[in-house]
Every structure is written in structure tokens, then in C-alpha cells.
From TrEMBL:
One of its GO terms (cellular component) is plasma membrane. This is EF-hand domain-containing protein. It comes from the Eukaryota. Residues 366-401 form the EF-hand domain.
Length: 650
């Protein structure tokens, strides 16, 4: 199959109309599908329907000269899954051999795949997990991208780069009456305080990465460093000394090691990444359930919560354009380069052994949702296909431009007006033609008649099914709340924090907010991924006050990390932090004394950060909600004063 496709590609490349060349920019604001399919063929093995696990989705996009973060890729998969749950009917062996398989590219990491499909006890959706019944038909959650989706996302990212879409400003950003951002509170730095080039933060006992790797290299390079592990026993008297070293250091170098839970370290790293400090982060993923921490095996539920905390931290850091390392030596080499060449960590690239990031804040998944919703609205029979006339209708809905059936017949495999188009083919068609200027559209049709018909037939058919071939029945669609509501408009209060089996939102927060007439966003009802994907970040950015509840019923590691990060960004927060009791039991897991101490240490650190920044912290949810309501009203009054001041200046 691949040989025939490549042969077709060579014929098109040699005999096609040379007046149209995507390398010369004749395909504005987009990467040509011919180029994208060539990239796809290099990644997808010959005759295989699925790329092997060693292949990374990021590398596929990198070859198309776009550089999404892992959370952006997971958002793509998440949004594709939200709109399509594929029912797999039981088939005989002969049916399986005859059935043409759709090529896909899957996630390469077990945690990445799990993070899309399996909500954790700390940040799970209200929707139950779909299950596959081995005895008959079942529902399988997809964790891949099709060729049409790949084309759509690659071109959307390229358009984002060309438009240079700025990072959004949080609506909850704390400002003064003049509209200026209020800077974070800093304790006075002693004039006699020593200044170090590198602060070696992160996991401490029993880790030895500082003595074994970091310190010998830094000494050899002549770089000064502060080692918080320099004393056998850490004590409270070292808090101020460490704070002074963090404030004056040129680079904060943090390692999240797998030998400890690193709860307080994750909270600390989440805060300082937002504090506009040069930050280098290394994360060593946990081994899995049963791994020993302080001599105790961790359960599957605790592993999921700890792994989620690490992944959410990585997502927040990458959202700022900061790459995350998995190797201490490589991270130290880049630290030395940053200090030697006086560059930022965001300026590191592929030559430094990292995956570059470009516009990682950009929400990308909602673009697919809009196409899928338009497609589903016209697919009244739920067949998974729409007619040519419906394609033209959808094209006009999405682009406000006309596309006739005659034009469409020039680029599909069949001239039969009754032929149908699958969603994957629909993505290819929309991607190819939606961005063309109106005056160039006819020119494109003219030069593509002989070329694109063969192209779309040869390119789209191996990726999904041939136009005139019916698709399998039994496509299930998700009718629950969709993520795109997060981008639609502003909310007064974001109800962040512990999810899972907690009921504080329904029982306490929402009734009080309704009584006060305030709007809110509840992430627990929208089927989020465990990861901190850009669409969820957009919901937080569009909220005036961020309320985080760290409950005593959950470990809440990812919630604490998110709260610390937005605290570091200088946002308007209200916190409710509840300590774990001595006999804490979470979802059937009886926590050990060591575990309780670790999770409460993270709570204490978050509370100390909030007190330093003047952020209110409460023990009870009701008091925290009432404070959030009051702060929201205060912010509205301040906004009115700013508007009056601007009108007077005019």
C-alpha cells in the first residue's frame, strides 16, 4: 500500500502544475497536505495501522515544523475522544482480514495514554470510565490521532505562529487602581547575603544526586551553588537562609526524584516557575504501583495521584515555554550554557537535546470540536458520513465561503453526487481550502483539478475508508458538557481543587454562589483529562477569582500544585486547606504516618506561600466561598473605578 502511495506522490511531484508550490508559499497560512502525507508515510510503518510505541507524536509534528507541548497533544486526543467514542463490534477472523484498518498514531507513553483515559482519584471527571466487553460489542476510548486530525492541528498551529497569538492575561490577575499588576511580596534581601549562581532545589533525603552528579560538575565548571542538603538534619532555622539563596540565585535547578513523594517540592516548583525566575526542572517519573517510598509500597491509587502531580507540574512548566528534562546531566549542561551565554531557558533547542516548545499556551483542541460539531449536526442518521451537499453546507458554516458540489466533485474520488464523506476526509477538505483568500480560491481549483483529485484519493483513502465504502455502524457520541464552554465567556469564580468523591461544590459552594447571583465554572462536570490541558487553563484564565479547596478526603497533590502556580502568577486566589488527620483513609487506602506527614508538609508549604502573599487561607469551605464572593464583588468595584478613571482621562 505504501509503495503505491509513494509512487503516486512521485508522479504528482513531477507532472503536477508547477505554478503551485507550497515551498514557495503558494499555500498561505498552511502546510500542504502533500507535504504532511509525506511526513506521515515516514512515521507510519509499511503496512501497519498503528505506529509503534517508540514513535512520538511530538516528533511527527516536529517534522511538520510545529512544536506543540505534551499537554497540547493530549488536548488534541482528549477533544477527539470527547466527540467520538468508537464501538467495536465483534467480528469473525475473515471479517477482520477483509476490513480495511484506519492508520493512526498513538501516544508513546503508558502514563500519557493513561492520563487521557483514566481519571485519578484527585482530579477525575464525573463521567465513568468506558469499558470494553470482550464477549461482544464494547466501547473503546481512543488515544490516537488520524491523518485528517493531524493535518488540521498542524495547520492550526502554523496559523497560530504566523499570527503570533499572545499569551492570555489572567482575568484574576491582581492589579491596583491604575491597572498595574501587583508584584509578589518579597522579603528584604540582606545586603550581606551570599549570591550563588545555581540553587540546587528539589528532592532531598534519601536522594544523593547533588553529591554524586551536580556538585562535582558545578565545581569543575567553576560555578557557585547553594546546597540545601548541606547539613545532616534540616531545621526551621534554615528557611530564611534558603529563601535568600533562591531570591539571589541566577538559576533555580530543581529535581523531582522518584525516591520520594516530593509533595512539598512539587508545590514549591509550581510556585517558582511562575515567579519569573530562570528555572531548570528535571522530573524522574515514578516506577509504578508497588514502588517503595521510605520503605513502604505505594498503592495503585497513590501512584496515580503522585504521577498526576508530576504531569500537571510538567504541563504548567511547559505552558510557560520552559522545557522539562528527564536527565540530570543534560539539564546541568544546559544550565552551564544558560549562564555562560546569558540566554533564557526558553531559548534552548533541539541541539541541546530537548523538545522545543512554541506557543504552548494556545488552546488547540477546540478547533477540532467545532469541525466535529458541524459534521455531527449534518450527520442526521449517525452514520459517520455526510453527503457532498452537506460538506458544502458545513464549509460555508465554518468559513463563511461558498463551495459548490461541482467544485467538490473535482477533488474526491467519485463523481457521484450521492457519494459520502467521512469525518477524517472532511478534516482534510476543510484544512486544504478554508484558509485560501477568496480571489485565489478559483485559481487553486483550476490548478488542483488534475492534481488534487488523485492526491485526496490516494492520501485520504489509506487513512480512513474510501468515499463510496460504508463505515462500520455503532458510532457512539458523547452528549455530556463539552470543553469548549470554557473559552466562551468569563466567569466570576473558578471552583478549583479536590475532585473525586468530594461534594463541597454541590453541597456548599454552588448554592452560595447562586444565592449571590455570581457565575462560576465547575471543572468536575466537564469530563477533563487528568492533565492540565490548554482548554482547562483557558477556563481559569477567564475567571475573576480562583477558589481552591484542598480537602481532607483527598491527597490533592495536583490541586496544591495548581494553586501554588497561580499564586506565583499573582492571581486573585482564596484557599481552603484542610490537613489530613492522623488516621487518614482515602478511597480505601489507609495512609501511613510517613505519607500523612508528606502530604501535610505540602499543605503547610502552600499555606506559608499564601500567607506571605496576603492570600486568605481558611479551614472550612463555607468561609472560603464567602470570602471568594466578597473578593469578586471588590474586584467588580475596582473595575468600575478603573473604567471611570479612563473615561475622565479621555
Amino acid at each position: 500500500m505504501e509503495t503505491q502511495v509513494l509512487k503516486c506522490y512521485e508522479i504528482l511531484d513531477r507532472k503536477g502544475n508547477e505554478s503551485l508550490d507550497y515551498n514557495r508559499g503558494d499555500w498561505p497560512c498552511q502546510v500542504g497536505q502533500l507535504e504532511l502525507y509525506e511526513i506521515w508515510c515516514r512515521v507510519v510503518p509499511n503496512g501497519s495501522a498503528v505506529v509503534s510505541e517508540t514513535q512520538r507524536l511530538q516528533s511527527l509534528f516536529h517534522q511538520a515544523s510545529v512544536y506543540p507541548s505534551q499537554s497540547q497533544i493530549l488536548e488534541m486526543i482528549h477533544c477527539a475522544r470527547e466527540r467520538e467514542l468508537v464501538q467495536v463490534p465483534q467480528q469473525s477472523q475473515s471479517q477482520q482480514e477483509e476490513e480495511e484498518i484506519r492508520p493512526v498514531v498513538t501516544s508513546d507513553s503508558t502514563i500519557m495514554a493513561t492520563s487521557v483515559n483514566c481519571p485519578s482519584t484527585d482530579q477525575q471527571s464525573s463521567r465513568s470510565k468506558d469499558q470494553t466487553d470482550g464477549c461482544g460489542g464494547g466501547i473503546q476510548q481512543r488515544n490516537y490521532l488520524t491523518f485528517g486530525e493531524f493535518c488540521l492541528f498542524a495547520n492550526e498551529l502554523r496559523k497560530c505562529y504566523e499570527r503570533e497569538i499572545p499569551r492570555p492575561t489572567q482575568l484574576s490577575k491582581v492589579v491596583d487602581i491604575k491597572g498595574n499588576d501587583k508584584k509578589m511580596s518579597d522579603r528584604k534581601i540582606s545586603k550581606s547575603a551570599a549570591k550563588y549562581q545555581v540553587f540546587l532545589g528539589g528532592s532531598c533525603n534519601p536522594t544523593t544526586w547533588r553529591q554524586d552528579i551536580a556538585i562535582p560538575l558545578l565545581k569543575n565548571w567553576g560555578l557557585t551553588y547553594f546546597n540545601p542538603q548541606q547539613v545532616p538534619q534540616w531545621g526551621p532555622e534554615l528557611i530564611e537562609k534558603e529563601h535568600q539563596a533562591k531570591q539571589t540565585a541566577d538559576v533555580l535547578f530543581f529535581v523531582i526524584d522518584r525516591q520520594t513523594r516530593s509533595v512539598a517540592t512539587i508545590v514549591e516548583a509550581a510556585y517558582y516557575t511562575a515567579a519569573q525566575k530562570t528555572f531548570v526542572l528535571v522530573i524522574h517519573p515514578l516506577d509504578g504501583p508497588g514502588q517503595l517510598i521510605q520503605g513502604e509500597p505505594i498503592t495503585e491509587r497513590e501512584y496515580e495521584d503522585l504521577a498526576t502531580g508530576q504531569l500537571v507540574l510538567q504541563d504548567m512548566v511547559e505552558r510557560l515555554g520552559i522545557p522539562v528534562f528527564n536527565n540530570i546531566r543534560s539539564a546541568l549542561d544546559c544550565t552551564a550554557k544558560i549562564l555562560r551565554e546569558r540566554i533564557t531557558v526558553q531559548e534552548l533547542g533541539l541541539s541541546d537535546g530537548i523538545n522545543p516548545l512554541k506557543y504552548p499556551h494556545y488552546p488547540i483542541g477546540d478547533k477540532l470540536i467545532k469541525l466535529r460539531d458541524a459534521f455531527n449536526a449534518l450527520d442526521t442518521s449517525n452514520s459517520g458520513e455526510i453527503s457532498m451537499a452537506d460538506v458544502c453546507m458545513a464549509f460555508r458554516i465554518l468559513t463563511n465561503r461558498d463551495l459548490s458540489v461541482d467544485d467538490l466533485k473535482n477533488i474526491v474520488a467519485s463523481s457521484n453526487e450521492q457519494a459520502s464523506v467521512s469525518f477524517d476526509q472532511f478534516c482534510c477538505i476543510l484544512t486544504e481550502f478554508r484558509n485560501l483568500p477568496p480571489d485565489n480560491q478559483r485559481r487553486l481549483w483550476d490548478v488542483m483539478v488534475g492534481k488534487a483529485a488523485a492526491l485526496l484519493y490516494s492520501v485520504v483513502s489509506p487513512v480512513s475508508r474510501i468515499l463510496c465504502r460504508p463505515s462500520p455502524k455503532g458510532v457512539a457520541r458523547c452528549d455530556s458538557s463539552s470543553p469548549e464552554v470554557t473559552v466562551g465567556g468569563a466567569r466570576d469564580i473558578y471552583l478549583g481543587g479536590s475532585c473525586g468523591s468530594t461534594t463541597w461544590r454541590e453541597q456548599t459552594a454552588i448554592p452560595l454562589l447562586k444565592k449571590s447571583g455570581l457565575t462560576y465554572f465547575n471543572p468536575q462536570t466537564c469530563g477533563w483529562s487528568r492533565r492540565f490541558i490548554p482548554i482547562e487553563a483557558a477556563a481559569m484564565d477567564a475567571s475573576r477569582v480562583l477558589l481552591f479547596v484542598v480537602s481532607r478526603e483527598t491527597r490533592s497533590l495536583s490541586s496544591m500544585a495548581l494553586a501554588a502556580h497561580y499564586l506565583g502568577l499573582g492571581c486573585n486566589l482564596v484557599l481552603c486547606i484542610q490537613r489530613l488527620p492522623d488516621n487518614a483513609e482515602i478511597n480505601g487506602d489507609r495512609l501511613s504516618a510517613f505519607a500523612i506527614k508528606d502530604y501535610n508538609r505540602g499543605r503547610n508549604y502552600l499555606s506559608d506561600l499564601a500567607n506571605r502573599e496576603g492570600i486568605p487561607v481558611f479551614d472550612e469551605v463555607k468561609e472560603a466561598v464567602e470570602c471568594a464572593i466578597q473578593r469578586c464583588h471588590q474586584q467588580q468595584m475596582l473595575q468600575n473605578q478603573q473604567n471611570q478613571t479612563q473615561q475622565q482621562q479621555r
